[in-house]
Amino acid sequence: MSRAAKTTGSRSMTTRSRGTTAKPRSTTKSKPKKKATKARPTRRSSTPSEQPESGDDNSNEDEEEESKVRVPSKRKSISNITQSLINKRQKQMTLPESDLEYFRSAARRFSATYSPYIDWYQVIYAGLEHVDDLVESGHAYLPQDETSLDTLIELYQELAAVVPDMASLLEQVVDDGAIDGLITSMNLAASAAISQDIRELKSSILTYAREHLEIKHFDPPIKEDGSKADTRGWHHPQIGRLLCTPIKLPQFLKDPQKFCTLVRDGVVRINHTQFPSCFYQDGGAAASQGKDFVLEHLLRSQLLAKVTSANFLLVILFLADGTGQVFVNIYFGKSTADNFVDGEHDSRFRVKRSGKAYRYNIQEITYRHIAYTSLLLRHSLSASDDWRTDDGAVVKCAAFDAVIALFEKPKYNDEEFTAQLLKEWNEMFGWMLPSGEDATGLDSDDDEDSSLNMIQALVQHKRKATANTSRTLTNDTPPSHGDSANPDNSANA
């Protein structure tokens, strides 16, 4: 999988086991590292009740020293991030390009491109301790095992690749005692972004589901703006058909209503380790024939592609081979999707350069994009109103991890299957993704409103007109005397 650049600029990075003494950075600091466990509010002047009692000859010196520390004029001004956090609490507006927004934007990005379940508390503290050496080592909330710690450090590096001058900004926030406030703000931003994706799918998923099931109407009817608790998930037999794992489809098809009741009552258990039939291009028909067919058409469904595309690039896909509705909805966006029909490159079709793909300059489809899409699809069809709430036996976080495991855990990884799957997804959507020059380059052939495109057309027109005039003048010029005497010219005449 291609990830964001993993370097943190000129900062030297050392990965150490938990609890070891932090190694100083290349730039020597005269002050000691901060303790991460202490929140430090803005200092205030001392009050009489806080003054130390006179117990020895040095008490006055101690008082003078403490007073110096607490004089407001001696304290440096708080960072822009801390001020923004204060403004948030006071419900004041903050600048969109503020330092705080860099972190919030990164949290939104990684929720859809890496994982919706990132623990930013652990990521930030792992980096502060083991990469930038800004806090004391041995933080109580970091994982003990080296593998988990390395994963946190790797994600911290990727965060540093998209947040300008991150180490310097974090040092200021640690000085202000506002690091926990920053992490909370990042978590809220990520959660809000995921919730927005969910809201956009709540009604459109029913349209996609009808197309996938090849039906015109649900029976019984489902109101698009109605409550999910009573009309989706295992409360509706046709939605249940999409959620049923393929190996149980024969039992389901005998009596859908009864099967749904058994699932709701916990007699039949459908959990997060059982991929639903809506993940399959053929609705799980091939996989229902036996355990040896479990990979047949897996993660190639029309629903998955359509949901991804509407959120990713603002596109809703209707592919002739039945692949990919949800994916288009997430990463390309709905309006672009509406104009893309049957997988054909219509001459009038244009990918609108909005959605996550162009916002985050995503140039390749990865398995994490597919996993995020699968989570949203599964939740949108479920009876659960909150994506953070488990749906019966389906644990949402574990459902995401189950798809990731196909690619990352050796015991589940069929290399031929995963390589072919990613190849197909990138062939399907790769031409719609931004190229390396789209984010920073000047060329934009499909942007009719581009000033540069207009100027280019004028320049080309003028050059063509000049060339035509030059050729006309050349043809109208009479031959010279020397040319008339030329035997070749005479012969041609």
Compact description:
Residues 78-93, 466-478 have a biased composition (Polar residues). This protein has 493 residues and is an all-alpha fold.
Describe what you observe in this structure.
With 493 residues, the chain is an all-alpha fold. Among the domains are: 80-191, no CATH class; 227-440, no CATH class. 48% of the residues lie in helices and 0% in strands. The chain is built from 21 helices and no strands. Helix 3 (99-113) packs parallel to helix 7 and helix 16 (367-381) runs antiparallel to helix 17. The chain starts with 58 loop residues before the first helix and ends with a helix.
Assembly state of the chains shown? single chain
| Number of H- or I-type helical stretches | 21
Task: Return Rg in Å.
Answer: 31 Å
**Cα shape:** globular
Strand fraction band? Answer: under 5%
Write the element-wise H/E pattern from the N-terminal end onward.
Answer: HHHHHHHHHHHHHHHHHHHHH
Distance between the termini: 71 Å
Percent of residues in helical segments? 40-55%
Total strands: the figure is 0
* Low-pLDDT stretches: 1-31, 36-75, 91-96, 314-324, 340-349, 483-493
Largest sheet: none
Class from helix and strand fractions: mainly alpha
- Rounded mean pLDDT is 76
